[in-house]
Write a structure and sequence with these properties.
Layout: H1 4-17, H2 29-43, E1 49-56, E2 69-77, E3 83-92, E4 101-107, H3 125-136, E5 139-144
Parallel strand pairs: 4-5
Antiparallel strand pairs: 1-2, 2-3, 3-4
Helix pairs in contact: 2-3
């Protein structure tokens, strides 16, 4: 049988070792509504599959302090008919005290459309960004790296 102090030490170690889970309750209401609108656009866009709204507290593309925010993930076809997964991450505007958000994805360099010099194949992200701006009022950006 463990003494009371040993039980408290065990409890403290066990609790601090538990992973933290992001909750949609931690997302500002306006950002949550925007992300849900973006998901709806994805779910109604021809060629898009496996659209998901993910909640995370880890930054993927943008450096800075961690915060609970939505990401949108989906798969889309490139111009050769190959399917790719794309993830857009929410980021706060700068200065961060303003409630303005941007969704960003990073796609690999070398997405040249075969036979068309200088034309990039963004796997449909550019058209989806236009739909998000029109229907959800949100800015999204595709970066090639």
């Amino acid at each position: 049988m463990l003494t009371r102090s040993a039980q408290m030490i065990c409890l403290s170690i066990c609790v601090t070792a538990l992973p933290s889970y992001a909750s949609a309750n931690d997302i500002p209401a306006e950002l949550e509504q925007t992300a849900e609108c973006m998901l709806n656009v994805l779910q109604t866009t021809p060629g898009v599959q496996d659209a998901k709204l993910l909640i995370t507290d880890k930054n993927l593309f943008v450096q800075g302090s961690s915060w609970t925010h939505p990401n949108l993930e989906f798969s889309s076809l490139d111009k050769q008919g190959l399917r790719h997964t794309i993830l857009f991450e929410a980021s706060k505007s700068h200065p961060a005290d303003r409630d303005i958000y941007l969704f960003t994805t990073v796609l690999p360099i070398g997405m040249q459309t075969p036979g068309v010099a200088g034309q990039l194949d963004d796997w449909g992200a550019g058209e989806i960004e236009k739909e998000w701006k029109s229907k959800c009022g949100v800015d999204a950006l595709t970066i090639t790296a």
